[in-house]
Amino acid sequence: MTRIALCVAVLCLASYLVVPLPFTPVVLSLHTVVVNLVGLILPPRQAVCAMAVYLLMGAVGLPVFAGGAAGPGKLFGPTGGFYFGFLLAVPVISLCRGEPGRFLRYFGVTALLGVPIQHVCAIVMMCLHNGFQPAAAFGAVSLPFLPGDIAKCALASALGVALNRALPAAGALGPPRKASRP
């Protein structure tokens, strides 16, 4: 329960570190880093629970979405697809991450599964909300952000490796894991 609450708190904090862009309704934020990190450090059910709590908090009006936004209008607005993508991406990342502490595996899972899930959901929502064709929606909400999101995957993977090594050893995620025998 504590791990879930901490992940929700970090998601909320990441929402306030945004950079608005003039050419798109999407803002630059640390969401991608934190969403990927949630999938990398929590088991699937806990990851989904953390994301669902975060989305519910925003849906009922707490200012936890990007830039302090809140409410169903933001969740179901033009950029709301990212939020639904977060919910779908975290269990996939968690299920596919493999053994703890493997940077390349973490990076591959977040970059090849997590980010595409988030972006596809964002493209679909932009098409539904604004009537964009898929290619136009891809150009508005996905293409400009792919390089940065890939870099954020690298950061999340490095943090995931570090946390998955440090927290169990410190007893922060329950009893320390027993060392495997060679």
Describe this structure in words.
It is a multi-pass membrane protein. Belongs to the BioY family. It is found in: Cell membrane. This is Biotin transporter. With 182 residues, the chain is an all-alpha fold. The protein has one domain: Arp2/3 complex 21 kDa subunit ARPC3 (Orthogonal Bundle). The protein contains 8 helices and no strands.
General shape:
globular
Detail the poorly predicted runs. none
Number of helices: 8
Task: Tell me the Rg in angstroms.
Answer: 16 Å
Q: What is the β-strand count?
A: 0
Any descriptors?
mainly alpha, membrane, Arp2/3 complex 21 kDa subunit ARPC3, cell membrane, 182 residues, 8 helices
Concise description?
With about 180 residues, the protein is mainly alpha-helical.
Which SSEs are present, and which pair or pack?
Layout lengths: L1 H13 L16 H11 L2 H16 L12 H4 L5 H16 L6 H28 L3 H8 L4 H24 L13
Helix pairs in contact: 1-2, 1-3, 2-3, 2-5, 2-8, 3-5, 5-6, 6-7, 6-8
Protein name: Biotin transporter
Main location: membrane
Family: Belongs to the BioY family.
